[in-house]
Design brief:
The complex is a heterodimer of chains A (478) and B (488). Chain A folds into three domains: 289 residues, no CATH class; 114 residues, no CATH class; 59 residues, Arc Repressor Mutant, subunit A. In chain A, 40% of the residues lie in helices and 19% in strands. Chain A contains 16 helices and 17 strands. Chain A is elongated and about 95 Å long. Chain A starts with 5 loop residues before the first strand and ends with a helix. Among the domains of chain B are: 253 residues, Amidase signature (AS) domain (Amidase signature (AS) enzymes); 76 residues, no CATH class. Helices cover 38% and strands 14% of the residues of chain B. In chain B, the strands form two sheets. Chain B has an eleven-stranded mixed sheet with strand order 1-3-2-6-8-7-12-13-11-9-10. Chain B has a two-stranded antiparallel sheet with strand order 4-5. Chain B is globular. The two termini of chain B are 23 Å apart. Classes of the chains: A alpha+beta (478), B alpha/beta (488).
Chain lengths: 478, 488
């Protein structure tokens, strides 16, 4: 039996740091990359007698995420203690939410394989604290508690995902939304956006779920896809060979590109959840939800619709431009003073995204500001410079960080539209090439391009090609 | 005034008056207390750590502040601090081996408040390990003896604080009360102790035993002194999300001596067969005295009382099992030598915790385990609600409830150590008050044939500290009981 006879059933659990200045239950900074154990205090070190105080901003961002994902916001949710022993967990319990998460239900809409929209339903979004980080050295294990108590939300999907590609689309969409609403920076490489995957397979047409495995340690989108593909194939092969799938937790090994089961000791926990007595119930009255909704930045789907409706962009163009908030913001910033938004749209989709991809940097780091890009494009629209000249100027601006006006002037890229100068160059050329002129007039239209090129060359490449065309046509016509 | 060697026998109110009139100095007063500590500690063992040097420095600072005028009421007053409070720079052991080397880098909120008042800390008092016990025998540093009879327990868990006040080693002290840990030792040592309403005082920096039950409170010689201390302790704390923002009244002003028309509830469940008849007699006498002062006695019922101990030992131990998980030898405290991570945890905790603490951690872990949660923890929480409702109903018919603090007077050292269940029954009259989050005051109301103090408990509705303090103070003023100085 081929793999086609099976379908994969996939659910994702995404953990993402919330972009708060301070930690979830204390005033320590959440800044990444500080020296080990610099961002710590008695509370996030789990000293005797300390108590948690909930970060209001974290709650607001969690509610934002819930609203963006069409969740129901719980007017009353409670925090619970999840107990397990691990050196990076200072209290040896994590403050999380168990039976009453802050958000329930909701969905993320993705484009499925055939291009049709598909809703991936959510089970819940809850708030919890992160743990520290164990660092293993040759002769010792060390713990860095900077990350301890950093606020997280966990976003749990229903098992609505059917392929690695859909999982990837879901993660991209989710990450985009979370970045748009400034809830998360979505940086997987810094561990601020992490994903666990639940995978099972079943014969097509069967409605019961198969036995699932959970895959952990997935810290890039590529790994998520690869791990799912590997695991789906492994499960199908296991079933086809007549064996059963064991319900277990697997780790993704990025070197060998395979999943392998964790030792049972590593995950066999009875978490003994019970309500956290140190925190009162989290009350979120409707008025607070409305306040948060009003302060929400525009969502990618809304922006996409606006670009199509107001700027006349295609669905594809709107999709590319809004995939990342930074790209969309850059596009809008660059197109402020332009007659045609498409000038900026094309520029961003070609030049800006190409350069960002090539350098692997954020747009804000790699490129001149959107305002300067806009100034450059305004010159193109006004025919003061050619599109090619704009590309040359842009490349120079990346290095020099000088303004568009300054760069165009310095490099002498301004186009000459002076009809007198261009007409004189045309006259000189035609006088110098009487044979070609005769051939053209005899019907060799192709020579027009030759004449344009020669005039442009004579003008040092800076003449406005439109003006050359007009004048040449008149002169050639005799 | 009394001779300088008797300064430690002053009440806080009197000492403050003398300090402010500058008839005595805090340095003098502190030295008398420290001398008394040096004299009696070998027999009493009320302190785990005596902070002599810091105390004398605090006393000097207090004297300078008093000289400058406008010093707060507790400025220069020597106090004992239960070793459960985080005290910056001073070892805080919680009477456990596992924290025997722990020096906190921060102060508990109430410690910071008392420092702000200019109070003097003479030392950290003995207790049952992690506040788990009713006799202070579960201390890694040996039991505290009762100053009235050195062969008997001081009560617990705040036995060191109660004994220290009774023996004149300090003028007042801090305890904590999770199931009776202030009121029972106050009763056994013949001093006053109050457990305020849950949330009235910040718990920040108080080593947690059972977070939803723990509450901070003072020991003192008189109700007035307890009122002065409580006012300094109570109030909102941004570091404790469960702490009330209600304004703190001037408790001392509530001490009018007037109880006419006061309705005193007498719950039938608290006067039961099996209790020490002398204890019952003393409390009944006190009730008669109240009647004579114009109060009315009302028979009330608290029908779920018999479930309180079972409920408490599920809720408290469940919370404790998580609260004490942090003592693992990783970040602070004593770490056992071990080969790997799992055995590091196991050895550290096996060697670091005493028997009673282990018993309660296991009980709590079990109560929260998969498959048992609903039957134990969840059911206990439901019972807790019923117990709270009992009190809500009772307070519709009365203003305060009066009961004995404990079924007996101080028992012999070692008498109940091998019988945890009997030990748990020492708290039978105090535990419901914690489960319901109510304020409870313990004051002496008599002595038994052996000269051991008997305690009376006055329970109030939530935040009715003024009423119970007024009630206790009125009894004190009646002169029905003359406080006896301990034999020691």
């Amino acid at each position: 039996m081929s793999n086609e006879a099976y379908e994969a059933v996939i659910g994702l659990e995404v953990h993402t740091h919330l972009m708060t200045k301070s930690k979830l239950f204390c005033g320590c900074s959440t800044e990444f990359g500080r020296a080990p154990n610099e961002n710590v205090c008695p509370v996030c070190m789990g000293m005797p007698g300390v108590l948690p105080v909930l970060n209001r901003r974290a709650v607001e961002l969690a509610v934002r995420a819930g609203l963006a994902a069409h969740c129901e916001i719980s007017p009353r949710s409670i925090f619970d203690r999840k107990s397990y022993f691990y050196p990076d967990l200072p209290k040896n319990y994590q403050i999380s939410q168990y039976e009453t998460p802050v958000c329930r239900g909701g969905y993320i809409e993705i484009q499925s394989g055939d291009g049709a929209p598909k809703k991936i339903r959510l089970v819940r979004i809850h708030i919890e604290e992160d743990a520290g980080k164990n660092i293993h050295e040759a002769d010792a294990s060390l713990v860095d508690f900077n990350r301890s108590c950093v606020p997280l939300i966990e976003i749990v999907s229903e098992p609505d995902i059917r392929s690695a590609a859909e999982a990837s689309a879901y993660l991209h969409e989710l990450r985009g939304i979370l970045r748009y609403i400034e809830a998360s920076d979505g940086r997987m490489e810094e561990g601020s956006f992490r994903c666990d995957v639940n995978v099972s397979v079943r014969k097509r047409g069967v409605s019961e779920l198969g036995v699932k495995t959970e895959i952990k340690n997935l810290n890039s989108f590529r790994f998520v896809e690869k791990a799912i593909e590997y695991e789906v194939n492994r499960q199908i092969a296991t079933l086809e060979s007549g064996s059963r799938i064991a319900q277990e937790t697997h780790l993704w090994d990025p070197v060998r590109e395979e999943t392998r089961p964790m030792r049972s000791k590593e995950f066999a926990n009875d978490y003994r959840y019970f309500p956290e007595p140190d925190l009162p119930p989290l009350l979120i009255p409707p008025a607070m939800v409305e306040e948060i909704r009003r302060a929400m930045p525009e969502l990618p789907s809304d922006r996409r619709a606006r670009y199509i409706r107001d700027f006349g962009l295609s669905s594809y163009e709107a999709g590319v431009l809004t995939a990342e908030r930074e790209t969309a913001d850059y596009f809008e910033g660059a197109s402020v003073g332009l007659k045609n938004r498409r000038t900026a749209a094309n520029w961003v989709m070609t030049e800006v995204l190409r350069i960002a991809n090539e350098t692997g940097q954020q747009i804000s780091e790699a490129l001149p500001s959107a305002r300067e890009a806009g100034a450059l494009l305004a010159m193109v629209e006004a025919q003061q410079i050619s599109l090619n000249a704009a590309k040359t100027a842009f490349a120079a601006m990346i290095k020099s960080r000088k303004s568009a006006v300054e760069t165009v002037a310095e490099l002498g890229l301004a186009q000459v539209s002076d009809t007198v100068a261009i007409a004189s160059a045309c006259d000189k050329l035609l006088a110098a090439e009487p044979e070609k002129l005769a051939e053209y007039r005899a019907g060799r239209d192709k020579l027009f391009g030759f004449f344009v090129g020669q005039v442009m060359k004579a003008m040092g490449g800076k003449a406005n090609p439109k003006v050359i065309n007009e004048i040449l046509k008149q002169k050639l016509a005799g | 005034m009394s001779s300088s060697t008797e300064l430690n026998r002053l009440t806080i109110a009197d000492a403050a008056a003398l300090l402010h009139k500058r008839e005595i100095s805090s340095a003098e007063l502190t030295r008398v207390c420290l001398d008394r500590i040096a004299a009696v500690e070998p027999q009493l063992n009320a302190f785990i750590t005596v902070t002599q040097k810091a105390a004398l420095e605090q006393a000097d600072a207090a004297d300078r502040r008093i000289k400058g005028g406008d010093a707060p009421p507790l400025c220069g007053i020597p106090l004992g601090i239960k070793d459960i409070y985080a005290t910056k720079g001073a070892t805080t052991t919680c009477a456990s081996k596992i924290l025997s080397n722990f020096v906190p880098p921060f102060d508990a909120t109430v410690i910071a408040k008392l420092r702000g008042e200019g109070a003097v800390f003479v030392g950290k008092t003995n207790m049952d390990e992690f506040a788990m016990g009713s006799s202070t025998e579960n201390s890694a540093f040996g039991p505290t003896k009762n100053p009235h009879d050195l062969t008997r327990v001081a009560g617990g868990s705040s036995g060191g604080s109660a004994a220290a006040v009774a023996a004149g080693e300090c003028l007042g002290a801090l305890g904590t009360d999770t199931g009776g840990s202030i009121r029972e030792p106050a009763s056994f040592c013949g001093v006053t102790g109050i457990k305020p309403t849950y949330s009235r005082v910040s718990r920040y920096g108080v080593v947690a035993y059972a977070s939803s039950l723990d509450q901070v409170g003072p020991f003192a010689k008189t109700v007035r002194d307890a009122a002065i201390l409580l006012r300094a302790l109570a109030g909102h704390d941004p570091h404790d999300s469960t702490c009330s923002a209600r304004p703190v009244p001037d408790y001392e002003r509530a001490l009018t001596g007037d109880v006419s028309g006061l309705r005193i509830g007498v719950p039938k469940e608290y006067f039961v067969a099996g209790m020490d008849p002398t204890v019952e007699r003393a409390v009944r006498e006190a009730l008669k005295c109240y009647e004579a002062m114009g109060a009315k006695l009302v028979d009330i019922t608290l029908p779920h009382t018999s479930y309180a101990i079972a409920c408490y030992y599920l809720v408290a131990t469940a919370e404790a099992s998580a609260n004490l998980a942090r003592y693992d030898g990783i970040r602070y405290g004593v770490r056992a030598a071990a080969e790997d991570m799992i055995s590091l945890y196991e050895m550290t905790r096996a060697q670091g915790f005493g028997a009673e603490v282990k018993r309660r951690i296991m009980l709590g872990t079990f109560a929260l385990s998969a498959g048992y949660y609903d039957a134990y923890y969840l059911k206990a929480m439901k019972v807790r609600t019923l117990i709270r409702r009992d009190f809500d109903c009772a307070f519709e018919d009365c203003d305060v409830i009066v009961t004995p603090v404990a079924p007996t007077t101080a028992f012999k050292l070692g008498e109940k150590m091998n019988d945890p269940l009997t030990m748990y029954l020492s708290d039978i009259f105090t535990i419901s008050v914690n489960l319901a989050g109510l304020p409870g005051l313990a004051i002496p109301c008599g002595y038994d044939a052996n000269g051991l103090p008997i305690g009376m408990q006055i329970i109030g509705a939530p935040f009715a500290e003024e009423t119970i303090l007024r009630t206790g103070d009125a009894f004190e003023r009646s002169g029905a009981v003359i406080p006896r100085r301990p034999a020691l």
